[in-house]
Amino acid sequence: MSAEQEDVEFISEYFPQDYVHLLPDDQLKALVESHTRSDELHRLTETASINTEFTASDFVTAKVNELRAQVNHIEGCKSALQALVRCNYLPHIEIFGYLDDLRSDSAQLIKELLLIKQQRKFIEEDMESDVHPGCYHSAMRFKMEAVSNDDSDRNLFLKLVDEWYIESVDISESFCHVVGLCSSKNLEPVRLIPKNLEQGPIAHLFGVESIIMGDPRNGLMLHKSIAKALKAGIVVIVPVEATSEVEELKWKLVVTNPLYYKRTAFDDVKWEASGISLSEEFLLNGPSARFLYFRYLMTYLILKAKGPLEWVHDAETSSWGAPGRYLRRSMLINLLRRVAGPYIPAIFYNSTTFTTVKDEVTMSQEDEDILTIQLLDGIVLAAEIDSVKYEE
C-alpha cells in the first residue's frame, strides 16, 4: 500500500476489502470518487422521497441519476478486479464469484433504469396518485415482476392482481371489486387493456415506450358474470363526480343498454338502471384511473359504432369525473373521428389528454394514422369476440 493509499478510506459493498491494498493509486482514486458520487445521489433520492417540495418527476430524475452512478461504480469495480488478474496480482478463479455477483447487481439496476425509461409517465402518475402517494417502490416491484414474465400468463396475472389488492387492503379473503368478498371459484382477473391489443399503438396513445399488460394496476378482480359483461361493453365503470372538494371520488358500475335492466347480473342480483356502487376495496385501492378511462373509451367506441344509445349520448355530454393527462390528444381525436365522424365531443379530450411527452421523438401524422387504424381494428375484434362469449 502506498503512502497516498494510507490516507484514503474506501469501503464499498461492491469491492472486496481484502483487495483494496492491491489497487494502484489512480484506480483507487477513481473508485473512491465513483463511490462518493453514488452515495451523494442516493442521499438526494432519499431526501426527494420525503421532502414534499420535490415533485414525482424530481424524485424519478434523482433515482435515474442514482442508478446510473451505481452502475458506473460497479463497472469500475469490475474493471479494477479484472486489472488485478491481468497484472497477476490475483488468479481469475479467486475473483470469478465476485465478478458474477457484480454482473448480476449491474443487470438488475440496468433493468430498473430501462423500465423507468419505458414507463416514466406511468410511474410519475402513480406516485402523484391520491390512492398511492409516494408509491415508487411498490409500483416498481410489481412492474419489475410483471415485465420479467409472460404477459399472456393468466395465472401470473391473477397472482399479481391478487397480491396487489389484498396486500394493500390487508384482507385475507378473495374479493370482487363490485360485490366485495366473493368465493374465489367465481372470480376472474380482467385486463382493462385487453391483452390481444398490439402494444405499439397502446404505448403511443399513453405516451410511454412500452406497455406492461401484466401490471396489476391494469387489472380488476371481478365476479365471472360481471367480467363477461364488462368485456362485452354491457357495463362500464365510471367515476361519480364529487359534490364538494372534501368528498372523496367514488366509482360505480353502470349498464350501457336498457335492454339489460332487470336481467340477472350474478347470483340473485339484477342489473339496475341506477348502477352499482363499487366495493370499499375498490375505493381504497382500485386500478389506475388511466386504464379505467381507456376501458371507458373502448366501450364508447364500440357502442357508438352500433347506433344510438342513451348511454352514448350521456358519454358525449357528461365529463369524466376523474380528470388527468391520460391519453395523447392527437391520437384520441383520430380514433374518435374514425367512429363518430366529423363531430368530435370535446368533452372526451379537454381534461383527459396531453399533447407531448418530454424528450420523445415526434411521430409523423402518417405513422400515427397507421397506429390508430391498428388499435381501432384490435378494439373492434376484441369486442366482437367478447360479445359472442357474453351471449353463450
Defining key terms:
392 residues; mainly alpha
Please, could you describe this protein's structure?
- It is a single chain.
- This protein has helices at residues 3-6, 25-50, 56-86, 92-128, 136-147, 154-169, 199-206, 224-231, 280-285, 289-304, 310-317, 329-340, 365-391, and strands at residues 175-176, 180-181, 187-191, 219-223, 235-240, 250-255, 264-266, 269-270, 276-277, 327-328, 353-354.
- The protein has 2 domains: 3-123, no CATH class; 149-391, no CATH class.
- The strands form 5 sheets. The protein has a 3-stranded antiparallel beta sheet. A two-stranded antiparallel sheet has the order 1-2.
- The chain is elongated, with a radius of gyration of 26 Å.
- The mean pLDDT is 83.
- The protein is mainly alpha-helical.
- α2 runs antiparallel to α3 (56-86), α4 (92-128) crosses α5 and α7 (199-206) crosses α13 (365-391).
- The longest helix has 37 residues, at 92-128.
Instruction: Report the structural category.
Output: mainly alpha
H/E topology pattern: HHHHHHEEEHEHEEEEEHHHEHEH
Instruction: Compute the number of strand runs.
Output: 11
Q: Count the helices. How many?
A: 13
Low-confidence stretches: none
In helices, the fraction of residues equals 40-55%
Write a concise synopsis of the structure shown:
Helices cover 54% and strands 9% of the residues.
What is this structure's SSE topology?
Layout: H1 3-6, H2 25-50, H3 56-86, H4 92-128, H5 136-147, H6 154-169, E1 175-176, E2 180-181, E3 187-191, H7 199-206, E4 219-223, H8 224-231, E5 235-240, E6 250-255, E7 264-266, E8 269-270, E9 276-277, H9 280-285, H10 289-304, H11 310-317, E10 327-328, H12 329-340, E11 353-354, H13 365-391
Parallel strand pairs: 10-11
Antiparallel strand pairs: 1-2, 3-4, 5-6, 6-9, 7-8
